[in-house]
From TrEMBL:
One of the record's GO molecular function terms: chloride transmembrane transporter activity
InterPro entries: Cl-channel_core (IPR014743), ClC (IPR001807)
Keywords: Membrane, Transmembrane, Transmembrane helix
Membrane protein topology class: Multi-pass membrane protein
Name this protein carries in UniProt: Unannotated protein
Main localization, broad class: membrane
GO cellular component: membrane
TM annotation in the entry: 21-42, 64-85, 97-121, 151-176, 188-213, 233-254, 266-286, 306-326, 338-357, 363-391, 398-417
Length: 435
């Protein structure tokens, strides 16, 4: 479940008046944008230093097999160090997104996140961005009444996570869905809406000021979609089903890993690091692609996946990424679940076009990604819009229907799986909540 403890911590009746809340949201939106910019700058430059500059300094054109093994192990060691700090790295990615990281546990959470993201484990940056935002908001308002502090935490976190999506609309939908489900009080909706607008201006700039810098979700290289055919819709439904199932298998694998980790956390953490390394090396040797196809969140490997022309290679990459992603979800690493799910959706879409060449790759990517994200987080509206954002430069508007269908399929399958787990597999559900 895409969880947040914000509703348990923040009561709508305790919030400032509507106008005061909107005014208060503005500086915390700016704070969230600044924090996110710093985090993403550090993440990008540290990944470059570790995975590109270091191999070059050692005389390599690409990371040698032993370095691909060593670096995720270093990441695991960093996570184990973070376990010794207050908070023990906070809640895990199987539980969804969290708006409750305070300064007291921030060091533990962010250290584990850097150990995960910088050293190649298959999780995304969205959860650490939320942690940075909530901790910063709590620190600034630490002397204020509890409701005011938690309101500031939420506003800062929303602005921070918006930086990675390149558009506030995705997070606006996420905020609305959390509000509709009662996880965020309705009184926080309009201030959050304004905060996201302010954050977007801070990132993109205004007038002669270029802003702090923003990310773009648009996937390069997608063919222009001028209309949606019946083939696109039918194959889109099929790849949506497959993408959702693949994502849920990864989640189920993560739950199994989480159960194992309860008895011996260090062994499982190291085992998943080695497994991820082995899969990355195997994919590189067999397909000729880079280790980025398995390592990291999937953003760097997406262009390679889109260019793949062998169905066997695509299937191998999907299986390898599924295992690496599921392992990272349950082993104790810290990061977000969204972008690896996006990568799996892209992979399934590529496979779909190789099997059905007459179907549009752009339409299938939108459908499969919507299904995968909805299955990962149980937020179908957010999933559909996020998938459409990937194709903003390739005629995304024509893919709106398949985005909706895909998100619906992913959501329904996730709901069905959650109900089945609650009835038949409560131990794994508990392990996921405690991971």
């Amino acid at each position: 479940m895409a969880s947040t403890n914000a509703s348990a911590q923040l009561n709508g009746e305790d919030l400032p008046s509507p106008i005061k809340a909107i005014v208060l949201a503005i500086p915390f939106a700016l704070l969230g944008s600044i924090i996110a910019t710093i985090f993403l700058f550090l993440e990008d430059h540290l990944i470059t230093a570790v995975w590109q500059d270091l191999p070059k300094a050692l005389g390599m054109t690409e990371p040698a097999w032993w370095l691909v093994v060593l670096l995720p192990l270093i990441g695991a060691a960093i996570v184990m160090i973070a376990w010794r700090l207050p908070g023990r790295t906070g809640s895990g990615p199987l539980e969804g997104l969290h708006f409750d990281v305070t300064p007291a546990i921030f060091a533990s959470v962010i250290l584990a996140a850097f150990g995960t993201l910088i050293f190649g484990l298959s999780l995304g940056p969205e959860a650490p961005l939320l942690a940075c935002g909530t901790a910063a908001g709590a620190f600034v308002l630490r002397r204020q009444p509890d409701p005011v502090m938690k309101f500031g935490m939420l506003m800062t976190a929303l602005a921070a996570i918006a930086a990675i999506f390149g558009s506030p609309i995705v997070v606006v939908l996420m905020l609305a869905e959390f509000t509709a489900l009662g996880r965020i009080p309705a009184a926080a909706l309009m201030p959050g809406f304004v905060a996201l607008g302010v954050a977007y201006v801070a990132e993109t700039g205004v007038g002669g000021w270029s802003g702090l810098g923003s990310s773009s979700l648009a996937v390069p290289g997608l063919p222009e979609l001028t209309s949606t055919s019946a083939t696109d819709i039918l194959v889109g439904l099929a790849v949506s089903l497959v993408a959702a199932v693949v994502t849920l298998i990864a989640r189920k694998f993560g739950q199994r890993i989480a159960v194992m980790a309860r008895s011996n956390p260090p062994l499982v953490l190291i085992g998943v690091a080695l497994l991820t390394s082995g899969l990355a090396i195997a994919v590189r040797e067999i397909t000729g692609g880079s280790v980025n196809l398995v390592l990291f969140s999937g953003q760097m490997g997406t262009p390679e996946m889109l260019a793949e022309t062998s169905l066997g290679a695509v299937a191998l990459i999907i299986v390898a990424k599924l295992i690496a992603y599921g392992g990272a979800l349950g082993a104790g690493f810290r990061g977000g679940p969204i972008f690896p799910a996006v990568f799996l959706g892209v992979g399934v879409a590529v496979a779909g076009t190789l099997i059905f060449p007459s179907a549009s790759l752009t339409a299938l990517v939108v459908a499969a990604v919507a299904a995968a994200v909805a299955a990962a987080l149980r937020v179908p509206f957010t999933a559909a819009v996020l998938a459409l954002m990937l194709a903003t430069t390739a005629g995304a508007g024509h893919a709106s229907a398949v985005a909706i269908f895909g998100a619906t399929i992913g959501f329904l399958l996730r709901v069905a799986l959650d109900r089945w787990e609650a009835e038949h597999d409560p131990a794994e559900a508990l392990a996921a909540a405690q991971s």
